[in-house]
């Protein structure tokens, strides 16, 4: 059985998967049949050998054979078994007679029970049902035994085979009565059964043949199994070889891995060494570079200092020469003007006296002749037309004479001339005509003299402008002034700020620095002194400050771009100086109006356009636009590089056609700044505001044209980042402020140091971009450094003053102001 289970279903499967071998489909049947046949033999023999000796029974009929054993199965039962379990051919032999008898008896007994309808007896038909024999052994219908009873009887017959012999005998005795009657029937039945048995035997023989075939197949399969076993043995050998190869490969792999790790470690060490070396090299190079840079910077500073000194010497010389020339020129102009003035006044006096005497005479004559006139009215009608013309001429002459303060005299003389003419008309017409011509000639002379005087005045005005701008250029195109605001009543702890040259034109300011301990533990205080073009103390008023800048404002009317800044920390007085009611903006515009009107006499006509721009967080805002557009409407700044002019897009620009417009502008701007302040706290302190006044003038007489711009800038608080302790949005604002202020410093520095046409970093911030054409070039710049008087602000004050000094030392234009440095105590810090 083991071999059968291991038999492969086909050869191919058997080699690759021995465990999957399948049994042939016929084999189980064959095996069970073989066993069944064996069992049949054993059971027959056992039954016989175990058969007990028949007990003596007086009721037993002597002529009938004893049943072989009570345990033996009936033939019908065995036939059923054979059908299910074919017997081996060796065991197939003809049934012995005893067996046949037993079968006969069994049938007789069962038949008798069929007749009695007793289902306890096994039924042949039921026993062989399900196989080929059943059709032959079917009980005749006359028995009419119900199928259920037959089934029941079949199931019970098995147990009844074990019934005690006494009971069997009893039943056989019952059968004997009927046996003779039915003998023939049973003989037929036996014959039929034997026929069936023969058929069955033939089938058995067929089965035996099949068994032989199976055995052959088994032998073949066993051979195949042996073959597969040998293949498996071979494969195992190969497998072992492969396993040993695998082990070798693994050990090889481990070795290579270790070598690789070792190489990696070495590589890491080498990389680290190289990196260290590189770092050292870089540091060396940096060090060398720094040294070189310092040396170069020192050289540069030295050469700059040399050049500066050289230039200063030359400038001083030039200044002196210019000063002398200027003084001479002035003297000459003064002398000429004086001579001209006295000559003209003498002439005017002579003409005045002449006219006055004539007027007087004419008045007397007029009175005398008034009456005569009435008499000669008739004659006058003829000359009325002429008289009207003369009157018209007289009016014209009066207008012209007014310009040279002689209009009254002209009018009187015309009156007198008219009266004289009347006289002449009355006396001699020829004399009248010549007198009239004489009068007319003199009048023409007077007009020409007045025009010459006008022309001279115009020339003087042009000369004044030229001289003024020359003086401005000599002073330098960037000027720095300092203003220290007063301490308020609620403020305490003022800083120690002094004004060493506190006379009328103070130019110096000194600040006592904070207390410091020296290395020796000694308390020291540094004094810082600064010098500017002008220093205004706490008592100074806005009017006083404006006087100093009024000439610059005048330059804007002359076609210059002018920029005036207020620089300083929050609360130092920038807005007060620039935009308060009497600050620089209202004063400058008022002066421009007055001056523009004065210049109208000289033929100048001016148009003025005002804009107010805020630069907040590196964004432009229109302070004259609608407040709801703040931070929303994008203001664009465009430059016309050819004309060197700046244009603003998306902004409101106000035509300044009267002084009251300035107040309106300031009011609107202030309102907008208040709205903006509610959005961002302290916004006005953290934004730059730029008031831009564009002035375009044309002279109808000379055909001249001038275009100038006045920029008045209130810068954002200059406090440094570390002092402001700002965070978040405030930090960004502070960074932007610091950036734009440092860009402003860079631009001023670049303007001072770079050659003409050199790069100026205007584009680095919105503020410098906006003021591109108002810083450097043909422009004049003034910076007010505003100073808080408080000790708490001392550090920022010193920083602001240092920045201002740097700007002051910048060379823009043709001249530069020399900075003076004052030092007072030990541990002094030199001012740049
Ligand atoms: N010269 C001065 N005389 C009298 N008061 C002054 C003077 N300068 C400034 N003040 C006052 O000092 C205060 C602060 O001045 P102001 O607002 O002009 O400073 P600021 O530098 O413009 O500050 P912020 O950067 O915040 O705009 C204001 O109350 C102002 O009126």
From TrEMBL:
<dbReference type="Pfam" id="PF00225">
    <property type="entry name" value="Kinesin"/>
</dbReference>
<dbReference type="InterPro" id="IPR027640">
    <property type="entry name" value="Kinesin-like_fam"/>
</dbReference>
<keyword id="KW-0206">Cytoskeleton</keyword>
<keyword id="KW-0547">Nucleotide-binding</keyword>
<protein>
    <recommendedName>
        <fullName>Kinesin-like protein</fullName>
    </recommendedName>
</protein>
<dbReference type="InterPro" id="IPR001752">
    <property type="entry name" value="Kinesin_motor_dom"/>
</dbReference>
<feature type="region of interest" description="Disordered">
    <location>
        <begin position="1"/>
        <end position="176"/>
    </location>
</feature>
<keyword id="KW-0067">ATP-binding</keyword>
<keyword id="KW-0493">Microtubule</keyword>
<dbReference type="GO" id="GO:0007018">
    <property type="term" value="P:microtubule-based movement"/>
</dbReference>
<keyword id="KW-0963">Cytoplasm</keyword>
<keyword id="KW-0175">Coiled coil</keyword>
<feature type="coiled-coil region">
    <location>
        <begin position="218"/>
        <end position="245"/>
    </location>
</feature>
<dbReference type="InterPro" id="IPR019821">
    <property type="entry name" value="Kinesin_motor_CS"/>
</dbReference>
<keyword id="KW-0505">Motor protein</keyword>
<dbReference type="GO" id="GO:0090307">
    <property type="term" value="P:mitotic spindle assembly"/>
</dbReference>
<feature type="compositionally biased region" description="Polar residues">
    <location>
        <begin position="31"/>
        <end position="47"/>
    </location>
</feature>
<dbReference type="GO" id="GO:0005524">
    <property type="term" value="F:ATP binding"/>
</dbReference>
<feature type="compositionally biased region" description="Low complexity">
    <location>
        <begin position="85"/>
        <end position="97"/>
    </location>
</feature>
<feature type="binding site">
    <location>
        <begin position="568"/>
        <end position="575"/>
    </location>
    <ligand>
        <name>ATP</name>
    </ligand>
</feature>
<feature type="compositionally biased region" description="Low complexity">
    <location>
        <begin position="132"/>
        <end position="143"/>
    </location>
</feature>
<dbReference type="GO" id="GO:0008017">
    <property type="term" value="F:microtubule binding"/>
</dbReference>
<dbReference type="GO" id="GO:0005874">
    <property type="term" value="C:microtubule"/>
</dbReference>
<dbReference type="InterPro" id="IPR027417">
    <property type="entry name" value="P-loop_NTPase"/>
</dbReference>
<feature type="coiled-coil region">
    <location>
        <begin position="436"/>
        <end position="477"/>
    </location>
</feature>
<feature type="compositionally biased region" description="Basic and acidic residues">
    <location>
        <begin position="74"/>
        <end position="84"/>
    </location>
</feature>
<feature type="domain" description="Kinesin motor">
    <location>
        <begin position="477"/>
        <end position="810"/>
    </location>
</feature>
<dbReference type="InterPro" id="IPR036961">
    <property type="entry name" value="Kinesin_motor_dom_sf"/>
</dbReference>
<comment type="similarity">
    <text>Belongs to the TRAFAC class myosin-kinesin ATPase superfamily. Kinesin family. KIN-14 subfamily.</text>
</comment>
<dbReference type="GO" id="GO:0008569">
    <property type="term" value="F:minus-end-directed microtubule motor activity"/>
</dbReference>
<feature type="compositionally biased region" description="Polar residues">
    <location>
        <begin position="109"/>
        <end position="131"/>
    </location>
</feature>
